[in-house]
Each structure stands twice: as structure tokens, then as C-alpha cells.
């Protein structure tokens, strides 16, 4: 039998400085398979377009000199148009002035920061197979140059000064609580001081703070001074295929890694999910993710559209939560209850009510349509393809929000069941919640927070067109706000919630007039003190001096 002819190597057109060209060529050219454990097949690297044999399969641009963001975007588009349909891979140095918002909007199919040989070869393989690669480290959003200082009035200066003092004192108390004092009295005093400072900050922002400051995070600079913009989280996305299946696999891999890490709570709110043991918390999130995968397969087979898709999604939510709860509890685990062994999963399902609707969940069509039909979606006012980095991160935010909120609903039912089944606490809850007092305190705090959110915070969110979303990533659960119209939900509020929105509207309407009135009263008081009272005091003093002078002359 004759030997098969060797397949031609893919052509790669390289744009790089002469010093970097040799190193990149040695990484990308064909290597000895016996010396390379990864079995890299290699590429034919071309540095001059005149040496190309046909069209290149990939264009690689290693940035030596860093252009302006507008010039980088324009040049990337010219390269894509010139060498279409070849994908474009950009290589960035470790120190560059571009913010993550600029990098995510570039039209390149691949973007790697500070690449090594293995990362570069994997990226080239993925791009040649029709996928996408994005790997950027933590960068400052919007660049590192400070913006022009905006003059502030006396009220803004007093507000920021008060916030800085509160934050500095709060950081000092938190530093003294890490590690916590051994004696009980100092521990209680410090914890009470922390609660007092947080309530004082919220009250100050509620009374005087603008909307942009009222729900922001505390200042983190030393001595209460505001820091430079905090670095955004690094992003690493690899899509093997630019289809709905490839998009789901990329999202599933990222969320699986985040859920398996046992995320902590950085949302600023008390979560029922915090009451679960760390391993059970991860099992619950992973179970929900697996159930979503199975639900997606079912929806792909049925292929519902429009209102039918939304109706089927809502009908299947209780079953999905039940299966996730069974996955977390274990199908064959039995624990004693009232002198006899009972199956944990079946008992929990019998005692739990998992068919409640979460009113804070956004429209599921925005999340399901790209994952089922690979439809474009609207992100920041732009209609982008679902395989774009911005669309992937937006879909990850929607999916992680659904995961956390579904896990929160299941966790609340688990806490209620543990209150009546003490033997279940050692199996599902944290060691701190074994005591009945601690468990009941947590449940009471969760109920009070839920009532406060329903009566006051949710009407404020609706009136300001904000939707809080939970984001799962970087080993923690944090909360971000999504701005979208919510007028239909606003009209469905009860009279208590509508009274809250009317109070906000009255504050917005009367606030400028009240500030103007106070300013005019202040100006009038200044005139009275300087022109009337000051002159009167001056005349009295002059009379006293003249009287003393006459007595001395005598």
C-alpha cells in the first residue's frame, strides 16, 4: 500500500515586529512530534503577503506599538475585510492602556493577552476549527487616566466627607474583627459598631445621596479616600464552535467551574444559600446547571417559539427545582426522624413548595433564544451576535442570575425543613446552624429582609427601572444592576408599594424647590448677619470706644 500524501499545513499570515517575529514563528511552525508532547502539527508562517500560496487560513497580529483604541478597531476591521474569510487573532502585551470594555468590542475572533507557546497553539487550533478565543487579564475599565475633576457644591462635599469618615471607621472595625476578639464583650461592641456604621451610611445616602451614589459600594481607599477605578475581572472564553451548541458548552464550562469552587456571598444581602454547607451549596448549583442542560435538550426537540416557549419554560420550573433538590440531597440517603429512617430527598420534596414564581427574574426569552436558535441579542443598545464576547458575558449574567435565584428558593425550603427535622442539619447545613437559636435567627432575618425588599426596595427598583441580577464568578456571588423599562410591573404594585413610589416622586419634585428655598433662606440669613446685625454691633462698639475716649480725655 502506498503512503498517504501529507496534508498541506495551514497558512498563517503574521504581522509582528522583527524581534517578536522569530519567536512566534518558532512556536507556530511544525515541530517534532516526539519532542512535542501535545502533538502540535504546526503551521506555515508567512510574514509577507507576496509569499502566500492562495488565501491564508488565519491572520495573526502581534501588537508592538500600541495604537489608539479607535485606530486599533479600524485596523482590525480592515484586516478582516482584506483577508476575508480568514479569522483574526490579536496578541497583546501584558501592559497595555486598553480597558476591558474596549477589548470586548473589537471585531477580532481571537484576543490573547501575554500569550505563551501552549496558549497560542491552542488558540490557533480553535480558530482554525471555526471557534473563538478570548483571554484577557484584569484590566481597568475605561483606561487608567483620571478624568477631569468636577467641581462639587457644599452639600456634595459634606456628603462625601461623611461617607469617607464612615468608611474609614468601618474598615477599622472590620480589621479589628479579623481575627475576632476572644473576649465576648469586645466582640459584641465591635459587631454593634459595624451595624451602626452601616445603618448610618444607608441613612445618609437615603436622605442626601443621589441615585448614582445611593446603591454604590463603599469607598475602599485608605483613610476613606476614593481609589482609582478598580480593575475589572479577567475574562477567558473559548468557543469550539460558533453555534448555539458551542455557546452553551462555553457557558456551561465557565459556570461549572464557578459553582464547583463553592462561591461565597459578596452580594451585600443575606442569602438562604449561605445557610447550606459549602459542599451542598456547590451540589445544588451544579444540579441546577445539569437540569438546565436537560431542559435545553428537551426544548431543542420540541422547538417551541414565542409565547409557547415562555409558557413551557414556566411550567417546567417546579420539576427542574425538584430534580435539583433530589441531586443535592441524594436519592438513596436516609436519616432518622421520630424514631424511624426516612429518605431525605423524598421527604424534602413532600414538605417543600417549589412552584413559586420569582418576580425579579427577567424575561426568559432573552436567555433562551440565543441558546436554542443562536439568535442575536440586544446588549448596551447594540444588536450583537450570540458568539460575541459581550453577548457571551451578558448571557452568563442572565444564566447565573437564574441559577442563584433558583438555588435561593430551594435553600429557603431546606432551611424550613431543617427547623422541623434536627437530624437533617448535620447533613445539609453549616456547623454554626446546628443550634436552634442560630437557625431561627437566620430564618427570621431572611423573612424580615424579604418583607423589606417586597415593600420598599422592589418599588424603588421598578420606579428607577433597575433589575438586580446575581452574578456567579471569581469564587463569589455578587450583585449588579440591569437597567431596563419595568412600567408594566410598576402598574401592578399594591397600595403600599405605590405609596413608596409616590414618596420618591414627591422627593424628586419637591427636592429642587426645597434646596432653592433653603439657599435663599441662607442668603437672607447672611444678609441679616452681615448687613443688619453686623452694622448694629459695629455702631455699639464705636459708641463704647468713643465713650471710653471721652472719659480718658477728662
Description:
It is a single chain. The protein has 554 residues and is an alpha/beta fold. The protein has four domains: 11-136, Rossmann fold (3-Layer(aba) Sandwich), CATH 3.40.50.2300; 158-224; 241-447 and 455-486, no CATH class; 494-543. Helix content is 55%, strand content 12%. The protein has helices spanning 18-28, 69-82, 100-104, 117-128, 154-176, 184-208, 211-214, 244-260, 278-302, 307-329, 344-351, 365-373, 389-420, 425-428, 436-463, 487-490, 495-553, and strands spanning 11-15, 44-46, 58-62, 88-92, 110-113, 132-136, 235-239, 264-265, 334-337, 340-343, 377-379, 382-384, 466-473, 476-483. The strands form four sheets. It has a seven-stranded mixed β-sheet, with helices on both faces. Helix 3 links the parallel strand 4 (88-92) and strand 5 (110-113). Helix 8 packs antiparallel against helix 9.
Amino acid at each position: 500500500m502506498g503512503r498517504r500524501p501529507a496534508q498541506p499545513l495551514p497558512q498563517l499570515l503574521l504581522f509582528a515586529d522583527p524581534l517578536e517575529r522569530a519567536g512566534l514563528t518558532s512556536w507556530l511552525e511544525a515541530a517534532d512530534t516526539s519532542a512535542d508532547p501535545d502533538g502540535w502539527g504546526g503551521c506555515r508562517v508567512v510574514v509577507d503577503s507576496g509569499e502566500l500560496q492562495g488565501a491564508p487560513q488565519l491572520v495573526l497580529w502581534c501588537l508592538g506599538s500600541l495604537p489608539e483604541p479607535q485606530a486599533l478597531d479600524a485596523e482590525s476591521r480592515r484586516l478582516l475585510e482584506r483577508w476575508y474569510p480568514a479569522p483574526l487573532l490579536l496578541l497583546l502585551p501584558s501592559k497595555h492602556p486598553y480597558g476591558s470594555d474596549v477589548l470586548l468590542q473589537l471585531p477580532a475572533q481571537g484576543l490573547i493577552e501575554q500569550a505563551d507557546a501552549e496558549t497560542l497553539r491552542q488558540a490557533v487550533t480553535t480558530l482554525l476549527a471555526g471557534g473563538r478565543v478570548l483571554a484577557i487579564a484584569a484590566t481597568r475599565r475605561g483606561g487608567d487616566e483620571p478624568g477631569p475633576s468636577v467641581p462639587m457644591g457644599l452639600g456634595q462635599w459634606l456628603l462625601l466627607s461623611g461617607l469617607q469618615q464612615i468608611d474609614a471607621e468601618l474598615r477599622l472595625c472590620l480589621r479589628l474583627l479579623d481575627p475576632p476578639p476572644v473576649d465576648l464583650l469586645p466582640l459584641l461592641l465591635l459587631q454593634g459598631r459595624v451595624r451602626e456604621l452601616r445603618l448610618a451610611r444607608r441613612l445618609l445616602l437615603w436622605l442626601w445621596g443621589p441615585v448614582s451614589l445611593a446603591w454604590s459600594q463603599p469607598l475602599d481607599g485608605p483613610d476613606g479616600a476614593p481609589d482609582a477605578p478598580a480593575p475589572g475581572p479577567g475574562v477567558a472564553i473559548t468557543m469550539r464552535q460558533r453555534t448555539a451548541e458551542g455557546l452553551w458548552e462555553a457557558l456551561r464550562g465557565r459556570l461549572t467551574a464557578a459553582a464547583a469552587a463553592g462561591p461565597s456571598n459578596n452580594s451585600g444581602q443575606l442569602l438562604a444559600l449561605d445557610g447550606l454547607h459549602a459542599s451542598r451549596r456547590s451540589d445544588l448549583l451544579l444540579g441546577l446547571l445539569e437540569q438546565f442542560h436537560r431542559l435545553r435538550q428537551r426544548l431543542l426537540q420540541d422547538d417551541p417559539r414565542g409565547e409557547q416557549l415562555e409558557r413551557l419554560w414556566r411550567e417546567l420550573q417546579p420539576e427542574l427545582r425538584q430534580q435539583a433538590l433530589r441531586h443535592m440531597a441524594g436519592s438513596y440517603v436516609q436519616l432518622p426522624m421520630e424514631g424511624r429512617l426516612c429518605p431525605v430527598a423524598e421527604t424534602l420534596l413532600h414538605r417543600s413548595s417549589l412552584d413559586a414564581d420569582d418576580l425579579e427574574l427577567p424575561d426568559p426569552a432573552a436567555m433562551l433564544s440565543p441558546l436554542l436558535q443562536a439568535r442575536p441579542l440586544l446588549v448596551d443598545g447594540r444588536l450583537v451576535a450570540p458568539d460575541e464576547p459581550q453577548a457571551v458575558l451578558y448571557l452568563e449574567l442572565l444564566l447565573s442570575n437564574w441559577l442563584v435565584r433558583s438555588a435561593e428558593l430551594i435553600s429557603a425550603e431546606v432551611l424550613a425543613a431543617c427547623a422541623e427535622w434536627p437530624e437533617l442539619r448535620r447533613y445539609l447545613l453549616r456547623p454554626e446552624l446546628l443550634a436552634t437559636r442560630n437557625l431561627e435567627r437566620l430564618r427570621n432575618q431572611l423573612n424580615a429582609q424579604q418583607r423589606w425588599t417586597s415593600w420598599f426596595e422592589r418599588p424603588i427598583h421598578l420606579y428607577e427601572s433597575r433589575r438586580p441580577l446575581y452574578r456567579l464568578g471569581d469564587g463569589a456571588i455578587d450583585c449588579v444592576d440591569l437597567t431596563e423599562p419595568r412600567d408594566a410591573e410598576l402598574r401592578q404594585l399594591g397600595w403600599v408599594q405605590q405609596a413608596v413610589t409616590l414618596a420618591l416622586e414627591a422627593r424628586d419634585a419637591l427636592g429642587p424647590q426645597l434646596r432653592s428655598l433653603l439657599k435663599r433662606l441662607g442668603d437672607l440669613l447672611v444678609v441679616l448677619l452681615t448687613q443688619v446685625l453686623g452694622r448694629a454691633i459695629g455702631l455699639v462698639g464705636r459708641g463704647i470706644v468713643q465713650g471710653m475716649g471721652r472719659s480718658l480725655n477728662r
